[in-house]
Amino acid sequence: MEPLGLSVTAAADALGVSRETLSAILNGKAGISPEMAIRLSIAFDTSADSWLNQQSQYELWHAEQHRKELKVRRLVAA
Asked: pTM here?
């Protein structure tokens, strides 16, 4: 929010959400929901799809960090 000169409180107010909700997203404690993606798309004149795609890529990156810990066997056709 700093590059835009906005406080979290002002941005949350513009988005119609609580400061706590926006803070949780900004601090990585919550993800961008489809509704939040729509709110962000309206506020920043972007597409909701782009916000959801970014969220998906972020979650996938985090999951990939634990790939070696997964106990999965390759399936092959008989």
From this structure: 0.83
